[in-house]
Amino acid sequence: MEKDKYDKDLTSGEEQKLFSKLEFTYSRSKEDVWKVLDGLTEEESEAATNTAQEEPTKTVKMSWWSMGIAASMTILLCYGLFARFYTTTISAAPGEMASHTLPDNSVVTLNAASSITYSPYWWKFERALELKGEGFFEVEKGESFKVHSAYATTEVLGTSFNIYARDESYEVFCATGKVSVKSIDAKEVLLKPGDFVRLNRSTFEKSSSKDLSKSVLSWKNNKFNYNTTPLWKVFSDLERHYGVTIQFDAQEIDDNATVVTDRPETVTEALNLILNTDIYDIEETSEKTYVIKKR
User: Fold this and answer.
1) Which domains does the chain have, with CATH numbers?
2) Block means of pLDDT (10 residues each) for the chain, length 295 residues?
């Protein structure tokens, strides 16, 4: 009943007569369709054409104001991506030290063969950087300041501290303020002034001494300060400080060095100061290569 009422309202008798002549299935060919249309009177053909016309396509025009907003949003998005992912790297070459002021006026001093990488345009949103090597940080007070390295992250609010992150070694010394050190497996240790921690195979080894500052920060003051330090580590330091290569047999030379001195101008002077020349031969095989052998 409802369907009959709907059909009656939808079309007049004349229109129903017209549509009955237009009925065909989608399986008919184009030629069959034209034959049906040819059988219509001129008036019926015109009515069919008018009935079959689609509604006109609506075109929405954007105003200049809308286009301006869209362009502004695109520019802001591009700037945000640029600011977030653009980075700059500051390096200290072998044999050199470098000092760099960060965007918040915090200062980092890099030891030889060390570098930091950070996002300068994102700094106001996140004070974070990556350190490779060794650096001393004097951090301005403010939001969290993070130093990421391969094996751990050190976080502070405003303090000064030293980080050594080379190869598989990670050491942190807190000079002032408080420092939080967190390993990659989420272990955490808190340091206060004078505290020193070394990360050894996911385990923190913490110590504290008033004299630690002199030894840990000796590089910053152009000094060598070794206290029963393995010679292989001393040689690694000399290679970075002087930009040279030192060759030796690690099984043959397994001694330690104990010396406190100003850093000599040349590596030859340094080797003669650190090594007992009655026991060791020092041979310069080329301009920047030295071979150490036991007598």
Assistant:
1) 2-52 (no CATH), 86-214 (2.60.120.1440), 222-294 (3.55.50.30)
2) 46 50 47 52 52 53 68 69 78 94 97 96 93 96 93 92 92 94 89 92 82 89 91 93 92 88 93 89 92 90
